[in-house]
Structures are given as structure tokens and as C-alpha cells.
Design a protein that fits this description.
With 419 residues, the protein is α/β, with parallel strands linked by helices. The protein has one domain: Aldolase class I (TIM Barrel), CATH 3.20.20.70. It has helices at residues 2-8, 18-23, 29-39, 42-49, 56-63, 112-121, 136-140, 166-178, 197-202, 212-220, 222-230, 253-260, 267-276, 289-297, 319-330, 345-353, 363-395, and strands at residues 68-70, 85-87, 90-92, 96-98, 126-128, 156-160, 183-187, 280-286, 302-306, 335-339, 358-361, 408-410. The protein has an 8-stranded parallel β-sheet with strand order 4-11-10-9-8-7-6-5. A two-stranded antiparallel sheet has the order 1-12. It has a two-stranded antiparallel sheet with strand order 2-3. Helix 6 runs parallel beside helix 17 and helix 14 packs across helix 15. It binds flavin mononucleotide (FMN). Flavin mononucleotide is lined by residues 48, 61, 99-102, 129, 131, 159, 187, 284, 306, 308-309, 311, 339-342, 361-364, 366.
Amino acid sequence: MFSSLKDVLRFKRFEISPAKRRLSKAANIGDLRIMAKKRLPGGVFDYIDGAAEDERTLRRNVSAFSDYGFKPRVLRDVSNIDSSVDILGTRAPIPLICSPTGFTRIAHPEGELAVSRSAARAEIPFCLSTMATRSIEEIEDTTLPEDTARDFAPRNWFQVYVWKDKGLLRDLLGRAKDANFETIVITVDTAVLGRRERDVRRGFTLPPQLGLSTIIDGIRNPGWTWNFVKNEPIRFANVVGKSTDDGSSAISLANHVNAQFDQSLSWRDIEWFREQWDQKIVLKGIQTVDDAKLSAQHSVDAIALSNHGGRQLDDAPSPINLVKPVSDVVGDDLEIYCDGGIRRGSDIVKAIAMGADACMIGRPFLYGLGTAGEEGIDWVLDFLKQGMHQTMALLGARSLADLSPGLIETRSKNLSDND
Ligand SMILES: Cc1cc2nc3c(=O)[nH]c(=O)nc-3n(C[C@H](O)[C@H](O)[C@H](O)COP(=O)(O)O)c2cc1C
């Protein structure tokens, strides 16, 4: 009896690394989100997960992907799947870019360093936010572990807002250039900050203040609290000593943005950036076909169709719904990125089939970072790559060139908000 029991009993080897143990229980990005929610204090999770007003845009960004189905072709040899693509002139194994996220060290002490290393390992671009908690120079110094093959260079992009202080902006661009950042991403959807009501409700500040509720939260999340207390203070690392609001005292993000950013920004500012920066420029936050046309006229290299992950204007168009109409009009003039709501490899396949050149993600890697640090981001990037490969195989598409609108069917035609 014992020998037959031995045949059927299989105990998994105990995994020593808690991060790996957690990741072994995740099947998708939704699972990582739930794990991050358990591990992070409520205010921190809400800052990452939340969005503007009633958060309809946030939900629609994700659910809009289910308005598109596939029309798979069969009996095609899919033994070799190639998902590689040129992003602004350099090959990447998957059409993916890590979006800029401010205050990333709030999720994990390594913050943007972990994201940049993970992206470099995956050979995809990483975009550092102006509101980052790691500086341009720290990212330049990022070294990958020695066992990582380095026959590729990390691809760092730098995101800028249009600050009132043009001297500060010029200084940031100069530092980005000196640190070999290859592309700037100008975010154009943030003339003022969207009303993020989860943060309003909690009186959330950056960095979080240690009030009574934070202390209670901290007791519930000892791992995060210990990291927060023992590591160097979280600051807006790129503007320390240069701006009155460098994050050294607690501020509300809305006050910071409304005081520092230029509400008079216009297409003339894009011309100013062209004079300052002679390399690639991406406009992030384009939400209509008309503005996509204007972007092409201002000879930028790419646009990110984006509503800032639903954090700015509630009821803004979902990026996936804009891909085809925008691609039909300016697809030959500039690269088009779909930014917002990507949670699976199949979402990336849909966006590419409808005319996007690449996709961008924000929250997915933050959930990974909050759950399991850098390994959590590796997990997310690998999950999206495997999901793309599996979807392409099941669709009968061997490479991105095989992906076309003909493989997509629109299920519930509810695109009037974007047309
Ligand atoms: C916590 C957080 C911080 C963000 N900070 C910035 C930022 O500093 N600059 C910016 O252009 N976009 C920022 N974004 C927006 C992202 O770049 C991206 O547009 C968005 O997250 C994409 O949607 P997704 O989260 O559904 O992938 C932020 C998003 C999140 C979730």
C-alpha cells in the first residue's frame, strides 16, 4: 500500500525565496494585482491602482479589449513564432515599452532601477518619469547582474512634462542626453491633474505621511513599512534641490502639478522641444484622430494613444478603440503606441493587428514590483511575451507581419465615443 501511495504522492519542493513562492501562485496579472493589494498599505495601493473620478475610463481601457474578437486561421506552420519588431529603429523581441510611472519607489525600494533592469533584460525600452524617485544618472549607472548576456544596450527613454520653469526643463533634457537617453516622451494630457478620488478620500500625500491611519496600515503591512523606514527617503529624484517641491516635504500631487506645470502648453511647446532635442520624440496622451494628424504635422517620431491609464479625464476614449482610426490616417507617418489597459499578450496582438506598432504598460509592472520586486516585473514581461506567442500560434500568425485587421472582428460596435 505504501509503495502505491508513494507513486501518486508528489510533494512540491519547498521554494526558499518568498518572491518566487508568491509568483508561483499567480496565473495572470489580475492575480498579481490581488497580491499587491494584500502586501501594500491601502493608500499606496490606491495611488497605483486608482484613477480619475468614477474610474470609468480605467475600467473601459481594460474591458474595451473584449469588444474585439479573433478570426483565427488554421493549418499554418506555427512551429516558429517571431514577435520581434523595430521600435524607433531598434529591434525588440516584443512590441512593448514600460511606460513612465511617477513615485515608483513607493511600491518597492528599488523603484525605477528595478523596472529599468527588467526592461533591459527583456530588451525593450524603459521610460523614466520626470516624477521618478530614481535619477537620470542612477538609471544610466544601472548595471545588470553579471550572468546576464549583454549583447544589447539598455534602452532608456525620458518622459517630460511641460514645466513652467523652462530652465529646469532644459537642464533635465541636457542631463538625459549626457546619460545616453535615446528618446524623450512628452506627456501632453496633464495641463492640470485629474481628480483622483481615492487619493482625495485618504488625504494621500507624496511621500505618504505617517499619520495614525498610515501607522495602522503599516502594522498590517510590516514588510513594506520596514522597507519604507530603513531606506533613504523617497524624493522626486530628478529635481532634488532644483524645485521648491522636490518631495522632501509631504505634498499632494495635485498641488505639485498645478503649481509646477505650464497650463498654457500648446503646439508651440512641441516646436520648442524640437529645437532642444535632436533625437526621437514621442507625444504621449494623444486621444483623437485630429490630434494624431497635428502630431504628424509637427514631425514627431511617434505618438502614444493614451489617457494616462484613466488618471486624467474620466470618460476619455479607450486607446484600443483609437488604434485603427488613427492608423488609417497617420500610420505611414509616425509610429503608434497603444497605452492603457493591456493585461494579456492577446491584448497586444489585437492592438498590433489593428495597426499599432507597439504597446505600453504601467500598472502591470507596478503590481509585479509590489508583489515580488524585480522578479515580479520579469514575471510580467515574460507572461506578456508567452501570451503573445501563444495567441499568435492559435491565430496562425508566424510574425507581426501576419497580423492584420482581417484577423479581428468587432463584437459590440460601441465606438461612437471615439469616432
Ligand atoms: C502610479 C502611476 C504613476 C504614473 N505616473 C506617470 C508619469 O509620471 N508620467 C506619465 O506620463 N504617465 C504616468 N502614468 C501613466 C502611465 O505612463 C501609463 O500611461 C498608464 O499607466 C497606462 O495604463 P495601464 O496602467 O493600464 O497600463 C502613471 C500611471 C500610474 C499607474
